């Protein structure tokens, strides 16, 4: 379908734009015959307010938000859902007749992507690296699944926020004191470690090593791309990266933006992941 003056535009605002969301959104739009285009766009730190102002002026139908803007964007919106307000994180904004409404699909995307794997592995406790917006969504999702969470935070503000939100269901520790599996929990030993930081370099300064990761049955990195954990996890049979979560939460975003219900999310997820793996 050729784009024209009536084509609906949806954007992704990110400091480091990727292509996964665009692939999912545009493939679904084509399948359902929708006259809409999804475009990822880079936004530099300090420019988010201007970007949202432009979106309002152009009456763009919605936009996705990724690191480092998931918390900052809240102040520029008219309303956020109760779930997004609780975790202080928005990754999806819907333009509803001029009202910008913030949602978070990260937590449900995490559960749809990895819930069955964690259930099959009988995981009762997990270590989550990070306490930023995405990590809080993941931690909340794990809590809803009945999994005890031990959060490792890097920044003091995130550490304090995580402690106030999640300490009753696990523990919050400084990432500099990151423990091995055998000492990470008091009541239930974690069998899975999840990297939910947004960093792609070695900010975990050597603690994420193959020997350390071997303590865990399952490893999940919610990022798509190159991270310290992804490099260290090569060869670990229980490792999965963030592609499944990226696709799962993008499917949920499509429903929010278009009102088109996809039905069997599990099958949609498998089909879309398979398509992406063929083109990558």
State Rg.
19 Å
By DSSP (H or I, 4+ residues per run), the number of helices equals 10
Which stretches are poorly predicted, pLDDT < 50 over at least 5 residues? 180-186
Largest sheet: 6 strands, mixed
- Tell me the series of helices and strands, N- to C-terminal: EHEHEEHEEHEHEHEEHEHEHH
Structural shape: globular
User: What is the number of E strands?
Assistant: 12
Mean pLDDT: 86
How far is the first residue's CA from the last residue's CA? Answer: 24 Å
Structure, briefly:
The protein has 280 residues and is of the alpha/beta class.
Secondary-structure map with pairings?
Elements (H helix, E strand, L loop, with lengths): L7 E7 L5 H12 L4 E7 L5 H11 L3 E4 L13 E2 L1 H6 L4 E5 L2 E5 L2 H15 L4 E5 L3 H12 L3 E6 L2 H11 L3 E5 L17 E4 L14 H4 L4 E4 L6 H5 L6 E2 L2 H16 L6 H15 L1
Parallel strand pairs: 1-2, 1-3, 4-6, 7-8, 7-10, 8-9, 10-11, 11-12
Antiparallel strand pairs: 3-5, 5-6
Helix pairs in contact: 1-9, 4-5, 4-9, 9-10
Overview of this protein structure:
The chain is of the alpha/beta class. The protein is 38% helix and 20% strand. It has helices at 20-31, 48-58, 82-87, 106-120, 133-144, 156-166, 210-213, 228-232, 243-258, 265-279; strands at 8-14, 36-42, 62-65, 79-80, 92-96, 99-103, 125-129, 148-153, 170-174, 192-195, 218-221, 239-240. The strands form two sheets. A six-stranded mixed β-sheet has the order 2-1-3-5-6-4, with helices on both faces. Strands 9-8-7-10-11-12 form a six-stranded parallel β-sheet. β10 (192-195), α7 (210-213) and β11 (218-221) form a beta-alpha-beta unit. The radius of gyration is 19 Å and the shape is globular. The protein starts with 7 loop residues before the first strand and ends with a helix.
